[in-house]
């Protein structure tokens, strides 16, 4: 394997690993559907349809992945969800 191939392999591997992070939103008995939907639209740039679907999935399945991406991108978004009173974590 040439040096160029090794470098390319490392770059592709690094990219695929860094995009495997997810923000998982958890169900709670405190927040309204409207609050969850509005927060997902504001923080995660969801469309109203996406946000509504995520809210329903969280309600019925107790959790839902609401955003994927790099840790650097997701960390401030997850913090904003937490500051809005939602239960979320990056996994």
Q: Explain this structure to me?
A:
The structure is a single chain. It contains four helices and three strands. The protein is an alpha+beta fold and 91 residues long. The chain has one domain (19-90): 2-Layer Sandwich (Ribosomal Protein L30, Chain: A), CATH 3.30.1390.10. A three-stranded antiparallel β-sheet has the order 2-1-3. It is elongated.
CATH class: Alpha Beta
**Total domain modules:** 1
Tell me the major beta sheet.
3 strands, antiparallel
Within the CATH hierarchy, at the fold level, what is the topology?
Answer: Ribosomal Protein L30, Chain: A
Question: What's the tally of helices?
Answer: 4
Overall pLDDT confidence? 89
What would you call the shape?
elongated
Q: Give the distance, in angstroms, between the N- and C-terminal Cα atoms.
A: 34 Å
Total count of strands: 3
Strand content: 15-25%
User: Order of helices and strands, N to C?
Assistant: HEHHEHE
The percentage helix is 55-70%
The chain-level structural class is: alpha+beta
Low-confidence stretches: none
CATH architectural type:
2-Layer Sandwich
Main sheet strand line-up = 2-1-3
Q: What would you give as the CATH superfamily?
A: Ribosomal protein L7/L12, C-terminal domain/Adaptor protein ClpS
Spatial extent as radius of gyration: 16 Å
């Amino acid at each position: 394997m040439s040096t160029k191939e090794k470098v390319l392999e490392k770059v592709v591997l690094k990219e695929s690993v860094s995009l495997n992070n997810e923000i998982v939103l958890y169900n709670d008995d405190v927040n309204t559907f409207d609050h969850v939907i509005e927060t997902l639209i504001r923080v995660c740039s969801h469309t109203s349809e996406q946000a509504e679907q995520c809210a329903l999935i969280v309600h019925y399945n107790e959790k839902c992945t609401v955003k994927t991406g790099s840790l650097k991108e997701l960390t401030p978004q997850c913090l904003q969800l937490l500051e809005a009173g939602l239960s979320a974590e990056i996994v």
